[in-house]
What does this fold into?
Amino acid sequence: MNTNGRSRPNEPGVTTSFAGLTHDVIELAELQAQLFAVDVKHTTTNVKTSLAMAIVGLCVLLSSLPVALIALAELLVEKLDWTRAAGYGTATLVGFLISGAILGAAYAQFRDGFSALQRSREELNRNVAWIKSSLRNRASANPTVQD
It folds into this structure.
């Protein structure tokens, strides 16, 4: 490249700089895709775990909990001389608390399962910032020739 009659043999041309930047961007895109694939796999595993926990929690609630709650209600009626309404009401409240705890744990696991995607998002933001910085630096290092 000639600038005002002077030659700069050590300075890369626009084509070389753009080719290098393009290569770097393609490499970053490949790495970003690989990271995203790993994060999706990890997230899927966590979602499967939380879904299994929710199903198990619902099965326990639907199968054995009503029987246990009836037994609790009858125990309150017999041992504490409560009315049937008070015993069954208290047993119902206990059932709600147990099912709420199980479903709350399933929800927390489900929510944590999606946190792995945060890593991909952060890496993408860093890569975009690097590309912008590289473009800005290469543009300032290779000013256009003014006639």
About this structure: Residues 81 and 142 are 91 Å apart (CA to CA). Residues 14-139 form one domain.
